[in-house]
C-alpha cells in the first residue's frame, strides 16, 4: 500500500464516498481507512480483551472481523455513521460482547460507556461455522481461475468496463456475458453441493 | 419483463446498489413469480460464497497491511530508537576515550623504541637483542619483565641509551602502579637531567595527571567502565 496516496482522504465523508463507489477506488480507500484507524482500534480492543481474561479470541481477529463487517455495512449503505473510527470500535466491541455472551462467560449489565453508533443488538459473532466455510471455499475453487477472477471483480463492484480492461476482454458486453456464465456455473455448483452459503 | 432486466435487478440487489423503486419492483416479482423467487434465492446463495471469498481476501490484505506497518514502525522510525542508538554511540565513544586515558595506553603511546631511533648505529648484536627483548615485553604489556630488561640497559655507558631505558622504565611503572608520588618524584628528577626530546615528553607527561581530560576520562569514567565490563562479560 502506498502511504502517499492516502492523504487525499481527509474526512470520513471522503472514505464513505469512495468505499461506496466500489472498484479500485474502494480498494484504495479501504486500505487507507484501515491504516488510519488501526492503531487506535487495536489499542482499544486490546484493552477491552485484557480487562476480560476469559476471552480467548485474538485481538487481530477482532480488529479484522470488525473492520470487514464495517465495510460490508458501509457498502450496503445501511449504516448511519457519525465517526468511522468510533463505528469500527463499536462493531469490535459488539463482536467481543456477542462472543462472550455466546460462551456464557458473562452476564451483561448496563454499560454506561460511550456509544459508537453501533449497538449490540446485531448478532454477528467471531465464531463461524468452519465446516460451512470450507464448503464455500471448496465451491468457489471448483470454478476456473478466469471465472474466479471475474466474479471477484464483480463482487468488489468493479464496473463491466473496468473488468473488461483488467481481464483483458474486448468490451464491457463480453465481460457481462462471461460474468453471467460464471455466476450461473457457481449457482449450479451451489445447487449440486447443498451449500446454504449462510 | 425480460431475462436481462431481471438479471440486472438481481445483480444490483445482491451488490446493494439497487434503487428503492427497483427494489419494490423486484419484491413484487418475487411474490408473483416463483421462478424469479427461486432465481433470487439461488443467486443469494452463490453471492454469499463470493462475499465469503471477498472477506477472506480482505482479511489477508489486512494482515499484510499490519505486517507492513510493523516494519514501518521498526526501531528506526521512532525517535526513541534513534535516541537509543545515539546514546549507545556516545557510551562507546566515552568508553574508547576512557580506554585511551588508561595508564597502560599512556605508557604504550609514549614508549620509545630504541632500534627505530638508532637504525644507523653500529651496535653489538647482544645489545640489540637486549633492547628487542625489553621492547617486546613492554609491547606485550609484561611491564614487570620490561622493567628488569630496561634496568640492565639503563646502566649503559652511552647517555642517550641510558635515558631511553630510564624513560621506558618510568612508563612501565606508570602502567603498573599509576602516577604515585614516588613515580612523580622520579619523573621530576628525570625531567631535570634528560636530553631532548625526552625532556619535553616528560614535561608533558608530568602535567597529564592534573589535566581536566585525564581526570574526567581516567578518574571518573575509566573506573566506572572497568567495574561495568566484568559484570557485562
Structure description:
The complex is a heterodimer of chains A (198) and B (233). By secondary structure, chain A is an all-alpha fold. Helix content of chain A is 64%, strand content 0%. The longest helix of chain A has 29 residues, at 23-51. Chain A is flat and about 55 Å long. Residues 110-115 and 117-122 of chain A have low confidence and may be disordered. With 233 residues, chain B is mainly alpha-helical. Chain B starts with a helix and ends with a helix. Classes of the chains: A mainly alpha (198), B mainly alpha (233). The A-B interface holds A 1, 22, 30-31, 34-35, 38, 60, 63-65, 67-68, 71-72, 75-77, 133, 136-137, 139-140, 148, 151-152, 154-157, 180, 183, 186-187, 189-191, 195-198 and B 7, 11, 15-17, 42-59, 61-63, 65-66, 68-69.
Short description:
The complex is a heterodimer of chains A (198) and B (233). Chain A contains eight helices and no strands.
Amino acid at each position: 500500500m502506498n502511504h502517499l496516496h492516502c492523504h487525499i482522504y481527509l474526512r470520513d465523508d471522503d472514505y464513505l464516498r469512495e468505499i461506496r463507489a466500489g472498484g479500485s477506488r474502494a480498494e484504495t480507500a479501504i486500505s487507507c481507512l484501515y491504516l488510519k484507524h488501526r492503531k487506535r482500534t487495536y489499542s482499544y480492543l486490546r484493552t477491552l480483551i485484557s480487562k476480560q481474561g476469559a476471552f480467548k479470541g485474538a485481538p487481530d481477529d477482532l480488529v479484522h472481523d470488525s473492520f470487514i463487517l464495517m465495510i460490508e455495512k458501509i457498502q450496503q449503505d445501511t449504516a448511519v455513521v457519525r465517526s468511522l473510527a468510533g463505528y469500527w470500535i463499536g462493531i469490535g466491541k459488539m463482536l467481543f460482547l456477542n462472543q462472550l455472551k455466546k460462551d456464557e462467560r458473562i452476564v451483561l449489565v448496563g454499560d454506561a460507556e460511550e456509544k459508537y453508533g453501533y449497538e449490540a443488538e446485531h448478532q454477528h459473532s467471531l465464531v463461524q461455522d468452519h465446516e460451512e466455510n470450507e464448503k464455500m471455499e471448496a465451491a468457489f475453487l471448483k470454478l476456473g481461475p478466469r471465472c474466479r477472477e471475474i466474479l471477484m471483480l464483480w463482487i468488489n463492484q468493479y464496473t463491466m468496463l473496468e473488468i473488461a480492461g483488467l481481464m483483458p476482454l474486448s468490451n464491457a458486453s463480453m465481460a457481462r456475458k462471461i460474468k453471467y456464465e460464471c455466476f450461473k456455473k457457481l449457482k449450479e455448483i451451489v445447487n449440486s453441493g447443498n451449500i446454504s452459503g449462510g | 419483463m425480460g431475462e436481462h432486466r431481471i438479471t440486472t435487478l438481481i445483480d444490483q440487489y445482491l451488490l446493494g446498489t439497487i434503487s428503492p423503486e427497483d427494489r419494490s419492483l423486484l419484491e413484487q416479482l418475487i411474490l408473483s413469480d416463483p421462478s424469479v423467487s427461486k432465481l433470487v434465492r439461488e443467486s443469494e446463495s452463490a453471492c454469499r460464497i463470493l462475499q465469503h471469498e471477498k472477506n477472506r481476501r480482505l482479511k489477508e490484505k489486512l494482515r499484510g497491511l499490519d505486517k507492513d506497518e510493523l516494519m514501518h514502525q521498526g526501531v528506526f522510525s521512532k525517535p526513541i530508537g534513534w535516541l537509543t542508538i545515539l546514546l549507545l554511540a556516545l557510551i562507546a565513544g566515552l568508553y574508547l576515550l576512557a580506554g585511551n586515558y588508561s595508564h597502560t595506553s599512556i605508557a604504550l603511546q609514549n614508549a620509545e623504541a630504541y632500534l627505530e631511533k638508532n637504525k644507523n648505529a653500529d651496535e653489538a648484536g647482544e645489545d640489540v637483542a637486549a633492547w628487542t627483548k625489553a621492547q617486546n615485553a613492554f609491547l606485550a604489556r609484561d611491564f614487570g619483565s620490561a622493567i628488569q630488561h630496561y634496568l640492565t640497559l639503563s646502566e649503559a655507558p652511552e647517555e642517550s641509551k641510558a635515558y631511553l631505558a630510564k624513560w621506558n622504565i618510568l612508563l612501565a611503572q606508570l602502567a603498573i602502579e599509576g602516577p604515585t608520588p614516588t613515580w612523580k618524584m622520579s619523573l621530576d628528577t628525570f625531567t631535570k637531567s634528560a636530553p631532548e626530546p625526552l625532556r619535553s615528553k616528560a614535561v608533558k607527561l608530568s602535567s597529564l595527571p592534573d589535566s581536566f581530560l585525564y581526570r574526567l576520562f581516567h578518574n571518573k569514567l575509566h573506573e566506572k567502565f572497568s567495574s561495568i565490563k566484568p559484570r557485562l562479560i
